[in-house]
Amino acid sequence: MAGSLALGAGVAAAQGSLASSGGSDVAPSYITDDDGRSLILRGFNTASSAKSAPDGMPDFTEADLDREQADMGTNFVRFLISWRSVEPAPGQYDQAYLDRVEDRVSWYAERGYKVMLDMHQDVYSGAITPAGDGGNGAGNIGNGAPAWATFMDGLAVKPQPRWELYYIQPGVMRAFDNFWNTTGKHPELVEHYANAWQAVAERFAGNDTVVAYDLMNEPFGGSMQGPSFEAGPLAAMYQRTTNAIRQVDQDSWVCVAPQAIGVNQGLSSGLTKINDPRAGEQRIAYCPHLYPLPLDLGDGYSGLSRTLTDATITAWRADIEHVAGDVLGGVPIIIGEIGLDTTLPGATDYIDRVYTNAREMGAGVAYWSSDPGPWGPYLPDGSQTLLVDSLNKPYPRAVAGTPTEWSSTVDRLQLTLTPDPAVTAPTEIYLPESGFPGGVKVEGADVVNWDRDSRLLTVRTATGAPTATVTVTPAGS
Ligand code: MNI
Question: Could you tell me if the CB of 218 is within 6 A of ligand 1?
């Protein structure tokens, strides 16, 4: 992806340096379920195929979900929705579309998943080119905003060799400038956006499966870039949309992300605090993406590329923890996207490294993406990529208290938590068949249930002590 490389390098030069603030002293916090358990979310983005589908639905069946669950024990999905589908005409919300989304959500509900709805966009809108897809049929160029909300003021969008380059075409830049109203000509667009989110939140307010709303995928500021964009029109849009959502939904988490370009590659974000008007604890979350530029060089995760990627991850993590901990006020982190071409050298090592960091950060993860192909867990012929084995590891899914530390290998899980006496539901742990073919041996907790079909172990720790450590290994070990 030479396009994103060049753009990223340009922003790096403009902003000066990689993020260097040293993380945060604020402990990780967690999204909780209705039983008050801390959720550790692991799953996929589903799916890129929704971007170009006329009905807005991903090319993903219930059988695909069964396979994903059986093979990797996921409990989470970042489900792509779009503004053009929610509000096809100004002020008109497509309830039939929301019915279809609700139907897909029910698939996840039946299988014990949690859902984050992601209002997706890339390169603003399908209307940036006459063909709606940048003219190359890739389906990745231009999706998100409705045509009626796309104001390019007659400026050009010329064919580009790479989808990322469309972002800096004059017509696309202007469409963003009009959306953010830095042109002063379209104050109505952000208002429509907030109201479209309210229509979505109205539908899912009472739905326990939908736990979070990711307000905008990979925000781009048009001609306004960096902290002035993030602290300005981006934060203002987040605040307005949060307020609109809270008029109809008090309980779902509202997820905010930094500008994509630069911050995805490890530069610091200038996002500012978003206030949650709900009564009680704030329910804001931080949902950044990670795409280290060195992996785009095509060398994969090895040699110099590996060294530079590691530096990127270190800087990225420090800044993410700083923004979530200190700027936003100690909010949960969900990594909305990480992913790579699994055929690159060192792909397994990169995936391990990122998931290790996510574990230490107490962050949820949605891998980009479940679409069939070399980035995903399955190829179009149904065969597995190395991603399946890489991701199919034990993890605590729901914790009756606050997890302070956990680690796992394929046949061992150790979890230390601060038990919450107010939480009566047990702690739930996923154990893959590869490491746990038979019974389980549990130290430090009482077994409530071990279900070899669902691969879920539930345990209860003593609540008297300030901390509890649970160790799970295969029976007979
Ligand atoms: O690579 C990107 C990306 C490159 C460039 C830009 N700009 C120039 C603003 C923005 C984003 N994004 C990574 C992945 N995210 C989308 C879905 O959200 C995927 O299609 C990309 O691979």
Answer: yes
pLDDT tens per residue, range 54-85: 999 999 999 999 999 999 999 999 999 999 99
Measured between its terminal Cα atoms, the distance across the chain in Å is 47
Query: Can the peptide bond before residue 465 be classed as cis, meaning omega within 30 degrees of 0?
Result: no
Q: 337: Cβ below 6 Å to ligand 1?
A: yes
How far is ligand 1, taken at its centre, from the CA of residue 411, in Å? 36
164 Cβ inside 6 Å of ligand 1 = yes
Whether the full predicted model's pTM is greater than 0.85, yes or no, is yes
Which amino acid would we find at residue 152? Answer: M
Q: In whole angstroms, give the CA distance from residue 28 to residue 331.
A: 7
Largest CA distance in the chain: 72
Question: Atom 16 of ligand 1 has which residue's CA nearest to it?
Answer: 122
Integer angstrom CA distances of residue 96 from 92, 93, 177, 423, 455: 12, 9, 31, 38, 36
Structural domains in the chain, CATH included, are 7-32+41-392 (3.20.20.80), 409-474 (2.60.40.1180)
Nearest alpha-carbon partner for 391 in 348, 433, 360 = 348
- Among the residue ranges 140-149, 221-230, 436-445, the one predicted with the least confidence is 140-149
| Main-chain phi, psi angles of 255, to 5 degrees | -100, 130
Per-chain mean pLDDT for the chain: 94
Find out whether the beta carbon of 375 lies less than 6 Å from any atom of ligand 1.
no
Please tell me the predicted confidence (pLDDT) of residue 211.
98
